[in-house]
């Protein structure tokens, strides 16, 4: 006998089940984001303090970051295969797979900084690190702040917050450029610090890349929340227009 009045109860149950799984997927991403933010903050703290224990903690948690990426990606694939979402739900599931890649890459940069911190703690010269400590600290604050707001904007589906994350990327780029000038001056003054200087430059560059990953996450949030693909706008702006 056909159900002539109202919606199909089976369909309603399926929709509720999908919403619950999608909400859980979002929570898993937020949890992964929290771990990566702590990885970045801890890695820089280990570097500035010459703390081998904190550096090893970051390195030991790298496997957890990777496992979260794999498990969330499997869940996103399963959602698409079983529920065939459309419109905003499909955007969310597709964006989830992209966001966790950005988080994993940010975690990988934190791992590299932690490895350098471990070397500093066991004898590598700390002079170049101390010379740009202010920049390292500020860049770490910027990158973790950008990551935190990017993840929060996903949790709240807040496109305006995500756009604000994108706008802060230029400040991070300026800090990196200033730090680079200062540390290259040190390298020219004392060749003994060359190896440690190169490692410090890589640490600074790693923080700048983490900011890029936060910006990329924010772009995905704008896409999820509004359907606007700002990645294509960015490419068009960078390409410019031909002269008349």
TrEMBL record:
It is found in: Cytoplasm. Plays a role in the regulation of phosphate uptake. Homodimer. SUPFAM superfamilies: PhoU-like. NCBIfam families: phoU_full. InterPro entries: PhoU (IPR028366), PhoU-like_sf (IPR038078), PhoU_dom (IPR026022). Keywords: Cytoplasm, Phosphate transport, Transport. Belongs to the PhoU family. This is Phosphate-specific transport system accessory protein PhoU. Residues 30-116, 136-221 form the PhoU domain. The keyword Signal does not apply.
